[in-house]
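Note on ligand handling. Small-molecule inputs were canonicalized before submission; formal charges were left as drawn, and no protonation-state enumeration was performed. Where a ligand contained multiple stereocentres, the stereochemistry in the source SMILES was retained. For zinc ion, this procedure yielded the string shown in the input block below.
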Amino acid sequence: MSKGLSGVRADQKFSYRAMERAATYVREQLRFPAHEAIDPLRLFEDLHQISIRQQDGTVIPLRGGVIALEGSEGYTRYDRDRRIIEILASEVTYARLEDAHPRAAYFVAHELGHCVLHTDQLARLAQMPTNQQAAFHRGRTGHKPYEDTEWQANAFASALLMPAAGLVTLEDEGLELSSLFVARRFRVSNEAASYRLDLFQSRRRDLL
Ligand SMILES: [Zn+2]
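Structure output:
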């Protein structure tokens, strides 16, 4: 999980609540209850059930695919010919999805964040030469954390994997939320759980 600024300036700023809502919408479309772990393989296989919209209202179909890829977990791209956005997982990542490995779940959730939050940017990027497209995931320029595409995708992933509403439900059931508990319950890494819990405890009014 990247905590520094590693993306480019996003078209839009999103509040925590807006990202939480976008993640809730995805969970609702795929019928994942807010207080349970996402099945990452089903999330990946059912990406086509999530509709994403460009600013002008155009709906863009979403798909998952597997590619032979070395040294990368995968990436997201807009396919100009087919007019779809694809999350492409490497074979290793796909095998990890089958094992419900936290890292693979985080990969899909993070990339889905790009699809939902950066739809227009992905489409614009597809008009650029390949070497410039790679810069979407690198190349820091002068912008604030919350304006950063990678920061936003990570915040979305965190909200999707560990919804604030789900954490509240568990609290209401009398469960004590520790990072170990959250990591096990939502099948995420300890690092992701502890980061999320810090945010939930310090800014819960901004999330709900
Ligand atoms: Zn990214």
